[in-house]
Inverse folding.
């Protein structure tokens, strides 16, 4: 069939109209049943979008260990059930064959990655944190103030800070996790503590 530009636009408009009506709820029974079946047996839980500092919440429907549905959380005072296009794509973070699920380690100077277990990785990370903290911990420092006559006065004061490690929090951390993470960092003496929401 040969289509003129005008008839092509008419047909396209009709197609878009049908799609819009379907989204408004004028669906065929088959379409509606498909949507219902997709999440009927799924277990719902809430999560926080990991992408930006807005911290929008979402309801995730999981069936057989796989995410089958995602929608904005109506109870969230931040996003009130809405999700931006990036937030709607977080399903792809989980349902993604390229998702990293194992610890990979590349030794200094090496070109290849080696798989490690968490039993190997966690003590190694803890060792690096401890060694870095010990090597960069500043117990005291000299400060300069002025005396009453305007002359410099040097004084040794307690510093107790670790200058070799920084901590960066992310939007996916909730209030309690942020509290624990910042307490842990301060216990180590960290002063460079930042959060994605402030950057
Ligand atoms: S849904 Fe969009 S606006 Fe909300 S946290 Fe995720 S990326 Fe940010």
């Amino acid at each position: 069939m040969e289509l003129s530009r005008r008839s092509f636009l008419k047909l396209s408009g009709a197609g878009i109209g049908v799609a819009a009506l379907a989204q408004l709820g004028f669906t065929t029974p088959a379409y509606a049943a498909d949507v219902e079946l997709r999440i009927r047996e799924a277990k719902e839980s809430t999560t926080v979008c990991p992408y930006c500092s807005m911290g929008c919440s979402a309801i995730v429907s999981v069936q057989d260990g796989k995410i089958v549905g995602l929608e904005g959380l109506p109870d969230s005072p931040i996003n009130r059930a809405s999700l931006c296009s990036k937030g709607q794509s977080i399903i792809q973070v989980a349902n993604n064959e390229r998702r990293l699920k194992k610890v990979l380690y590349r030794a200094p100077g090496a070109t290849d990655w080696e798989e490690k277990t968490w039993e190997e990785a966690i003590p190694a990370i803890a060792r690096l944190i401890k060694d870095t903290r010990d090597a960069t911990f500043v117990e005291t420092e000299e400060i300069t103030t002025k005396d009453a006559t305007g002359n410099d006065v040097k004084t040794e004061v307690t510093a107790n800070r670790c200058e070799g490690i920084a901590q960066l929090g992310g939007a996916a951390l909730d209030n309690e996790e942020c509290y624990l993470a910042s307490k842990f960092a301060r216990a180590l003496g960290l002063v460079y503590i930042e959060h994605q929401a402030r950057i």
